[in-house]
Every structure is written in C-alpha cells, then in structure tokens.
C-alpha cells in the first residue's frame, strides 16, 4: 500500500518524469496534488502497470486530483542543456502550471534543483512509495506514450508505437539503417558508430 503523504501540514505535490532514458522524443514530467483520503487499489509506479491499467488510472487521477499538470522538454533542448537539467526543467514547468500552489514537493529520485522557495524531499523509488508520485509517474508516462504513438505515424520505421523511443535492439538497428530523425537526441550514444550519421 502506497503512503498518502510525506507530511500532513502543507499542500503537497508529487512530481515524476518519463522518458529520461529514451533515444528519441521529449522528456515529460507531471505534478499532482491528491485530495486527503484518496486511494485506489491499483495505484502504483507506472512501470509496474500494464498500458491498460495506466490509461484507466490516468482517467481516475485527472478526475479526482485537486490539481495536476504535465509539461515536456523536446529533444533539441535536451541536446542543448543535457537530459538531467531538462528533466528538472520539465518538472519545474509542470509545478508552475498547477492551479493550486503546492507548499511542499515530493520528487522521485535522488536529485532536484530547488523550485522557487518551495521545500522539497527527494525519494528514491518514490513512485513505488507515495501516491502522489505514483500518480505523477502515470500521467507523465501516458502523455509521453500518446505523443510517441503520434510521432510513429510520421516515422514508422523506428517502431515508436512499440518502443516509445527507448533503445531497443530494433530501434537501434533502425537508426543504423535509416539514420536519425528530427526527434532523436543527438547528444545520446545512439549506435556504436554514431559519428557516421552526421
């Protein structure tokens, strides 16, 4: 059973990202403020859920959250500022978009760049520990997956409808065969002899 909150006094938002390790596409982040007493038997880290479960939970979260927001940073900016900074920036943008201002942030992972003056706590495997982070992980993942499915229609040769931009063997082989698309992260090591693609 996931924990409801880290502390009880301040309005708390859970934050998580999706797509940090992908070879193509943006990194997405979400911030979620859940109401007191919220619970759902299937709520968990998005990686532990099926696609169908994630989609069903996304509807529940969007319907019942006090506030939620999703933001993304595209592959060009990832190449420019690096993926870690891009992940933090996406989280900051999601927090900024929340209709309710949180007074405490729960961050999945072990590092974060402070957002304004709001105190935060980093939680390793937080998406499997706290409900609000799990909810954020589900929104970030489903929004990103939806985008990668749309981008698949533009570049079907990379199989993004299945791999969502992650570095599967089939995806890497497609890069070797077809080169890079405009959505690939050129700062990532995409194939063994990458320099030949430029």
What is this entry, summarized?
The protein is α/β, with parallel strands linked by helices. Helix content is 37%, strand content 15%.
CATH topology: Nucleotidyltransferase, domain 5
Order of helices and strands: EEHEHHEEHHH
Number of domains: 1
For this structure, what is the CATH homologous superfamily?
A: Ribonuclease H-like superfamily/Ribonuclease H
CATH class: Alpha Beta
Strand numbers in spatial order across the main sheet:
3-2-1-4-5
Pairing-aware structural class of the strands and helices?
alpha/beta
Shape: globular
Largest sheet: 5 strands, mixed
How large is the radius of gyration? 17 Å
Count the beta strands: 5
Are there runs of 5+ residues with pLDDT below 50, and where? 194-198
Instruction: Report the sheet-strand fraction.
Output: 15-25%
Whole-Å distance between the termini?
A: 49 Å
SS summary, helix count? 6
State mean pLDDT (0 to 100 scale). Answer: 95
Fraction of helical residues: 25-40%
Q: Which CATH architecture?
A: 2-Layer Sandwich
Which terms summarize this structure?
37% helix, alpha/beta, Nucleotidyltransferase, domain 5, 198 residues, disordered C terminus
Please, could you describe this protein's structure?
It is a single chain. With 198 residues, this protein is α/β, with parallel strands linked by helices. It has a single domain, classed as Ribonuclease H-like superfamily/Ribonuclease H (Nucleotidyltransferase, domain 5). The chain contains 6 helices and 5 strands; from the N terminus they run ββαβααββααα. It has helices at 51-64, 75-81, 83-97, 131-154, 160-163, 169-178, and strands at 12-18, 27-33, 67-73, 104-108, 120-123. A 5-stranded mixed beta sheet has the order 3-2-1-4-5, sandwiched between helices. Strand 1 (12-18) and strand 2 (27-33) form a beta hairpin.
